[in-house]
User: Fold this.
Amino acid sequence: MMPDSVEKIGESRVQHGHFNNRAYVMRLDPSDIPEIIPRLGALVEKNGYTKIVIRVPEHAKDPFISAGYVTEAEVPGFYAGSETALFMGKFTVPGRALNRSPDLIADVLAKARAHIPAEYKPHLPRGFSLVEAAPEDAERIATLYRETFESYPFPVFDPAFIRQTLEEDVRYFCVLHEGEIVAVASCDVNDGAKNAEMTDFATSLSFRGQGLAGCLLHAMEEYLKEKGILISYTIARATSYPMNVTFARAGYQYGGTLLNNTNICGTLESMNVWYKRPVRRQA
Assistant:
């Protein structure tokens, strides 16, 4: 199946398609409120999608609530450190709103929250190095994603997509071993809102269990501090013990769960939202 497409509705950027069977407003322009609500409804009805996902400033929630949206997660200070973002969802069929793995999701969350955040700097094992990726790394990054995931909500298997996002607001960081990329992650930076999404984590099967994801997360946080970013967040698979533990251990707070949200690893999965206000450097 083809990956979902990204287009503009008004001034807002929307990903939609049958791969994730949803419309996802990736960046909502305030000027599109409330007109975007019926336009999303028409898009979903035309294509038969079963979910809409949108991040809404808390002050603008009322028209969405009136249209049948529910708040699934929230990130305080998402907009320039001053206003909360609500991750709101609307389901067009009852089945998609059901939590199919409540016990597993609850156990993952409990085990992640049991890790007490500590001020620590993860250390790469001997023989590894960590670098910011360049466009010429796109082919190798895409290969690692293809080897790691059966499916993914964005076309990260395509080197052209990696290069395109590198030209925009996304920065990829890689762990190298003997010259090969063995782990990768990215941060999608929104300079205007002073936030960044920590995403696209992948580690080669042979190198898992060595804390490489934590090293990548720390490196990206250091990069974002230099850019003056006020909030970092992630949308992690709700059934993944390693990723939820990685973020909880690094001091991220749980913001909520997006039910049956994302086509990843071959099926629609629920996703946990975690967020963190980076510690500012003293002048």
Notes: Residues 115 and 249 are 6 Å apart (CA to CA). The domain at 102-276 is CATH 3.40.630.30 (Aminopeptidase). The chain has seven helices and 13 strands.
